[in-house]
Amino acid sequence: MADIYRALADPTRRAVLDELYERDRQTLFELCGRLAMKHGVASSRQAVSQHIAVLEEAGLVRAEREGRYRFHTIDTAPLREIAERWPARGRKDGQT
Amino acid sequence: MADIYRALADPTRRAVLDELYERDRQTLFELCGRLAMKHGVASSRQAVSQHIAVLEEAGLVRAEREGRYRFHTIDTAPLREIAERWPARGRKDGQT
DNA sequence: TTGACATGCAAGTGGAAGCTTGCGTATTGT
DNA sequence: ACAATACGCAAGCTTCCACTTGCATGTCAA
Fold it and tell me: What pLDDT sits at residue A89?
């Protein structure tokens, strides 16, 4: 399982997570279109594909094939590692 | 305020945060020594200094000068942005 | 089967990131 | 004052990263 922090380092990859968080089970083409429309991301299909590969290696995105389509789904579970590594300490407002 | 995600992307910077999380108000020299001892980080003083600069720009580390010393302190507040951006949804175990 | 569609792979390129190197500045102890 | 300490600045180098480009694979409809 690859580096989750490095996966989050790129703004385009974060936009992919944003988009998948809004709507799960999107194909690569759907993602490209919606990224361009709603997130101002003008990346090519190949670029987005490579970003998705990084997110998959980090466990943040899962994909399942159906025919010639590949549907992508976000998995926020690995993000908990971050909050658990440096938890907010001893403040009245700190929760997780 | 610079990119918090990019600041977390480097393993040495994460080790700095780990070390400051254990013990606040460390100088650059203290950090270098403790990183080498306890975290297996063999970075030079200048390298660590540059990493700290990145962490400061991201708001994750604050520093206050006293004489010829500069004491560094961790600030975990910016990390909440991550948990709040992709909160765990609708699972029985998800909290923040 | 054939063409169109959705995706996969892999080499090459430009630029940013991390590190080193060398010198400079400010503070402290004797 | 003078040396030692702690840190700062900036140029140069090397490596990695994101993107492109071109072609290949697999699936579906007619």
Answer: 82
